[in-house]
Write a structure and sequence with these properties.
- The protein has 164 residues and is of the alpha+beta class.
- The protein folds into two domains: 80 residues, Beta-grasp domain (Ubiquitin-like (UB roll)), CATH 3.10.20.30; 69 residues, [2Fe-2S]-binding domain (DNA polymerase, domain 1, Orthogonal Bundle).
- Strands 2-1-5-3-4 form a five-stranded mixed β-sheet.
- Helix 4 crosses helix 7.
- 38% of the residues are buried.
- The model has no long low-confidence stretch (mean pLDDT 94).
- The chain is 35% helix and 15% strand.
- It binds FE2/S2 (inorganic) cluster (2 copies).
- The site of one FE2/S2 (inorganic) cluster has 11 residues, from loops.
- Pfam families: Fer2, Fer2_2.
Length: 164
């Protein structure tokens, strides 16, 4: 079995949080497994079927469920995880807003929400998002603890502070 995997493995080159990686991956391996094996443990594996968003990362700026994204598809791509959001150990504005708004409780969903929020805030818009737009924009991410309002508050705080 292991020799089958080794025989079928593919080499991919990608950038993760600003660094170049060359990785051997099996064709059926999800990106979430590969990233966690490289130490990016912010990526949580909640449902592993694309329902909860706990495994959300950015691939070329687009938020994706890394449990459903094959690692081989990441060849030539740029990946960002929640670890890449913080600069020199300092939390990003989004991470800070989540912490200050009480949007982090058990924390299991938080890295996925941070990445989904990062993609949402990067979209061009002429005015701050409404609560409905934020809720719709983060609809792919589930949280069992916060009731979502504190997450919406955190996103609004970041949205108000960004240029439109
Ligand atoms: S673990 Fe990927 S969507 Fe739930
Ligand atoms: S903070 Fe616990 S699941 Fe969201």
């Amino acid at each position: 079995m292991n020799s089958d995997i080794a025989m079928n493995s593919k080499t991919i080159n990608c950038r993760i949080n600003g660094a170049n990686y060359q990785l051997n991956v099996s064709p059926a391996m999800p990106l979430s497994d590969v990233l966690r094996a490289q130490g990016f443990l912010s990526i949580k594996q909640g449902c592993c079927v694309g329902e909860c968003g706990a495994c959300t990362v950015l691939v070329d700026g687009t938020a994706i469920d890394s449990c459903l994204y094959l690692a081989v598809w990441a060849h030539g791509k740029t990946i960002r995880t929640s670890e890449g959001e913080s600069l020199h150990g300092k939390p990003s504005a989004i991470q800070q807003a989540f912490a200050e708004s009480g949007a982090v409780q058990c924390g299991f969903c938080t890295p996925g929400f941070i990445m989904a929020t990062s993609a949402l805030l990067a979209k061009p818009r002429s005015q701050p998002m409404t609560v409905l737009q934020i809720r719709q924009g983060l609809a792919g991410n589930l949280c069992r603890c916060t009731g979502y309002q504190m997450i919406v508050d955190a996103v609004r705080k970041c949205d108000a502070g960004s240029s439109h």
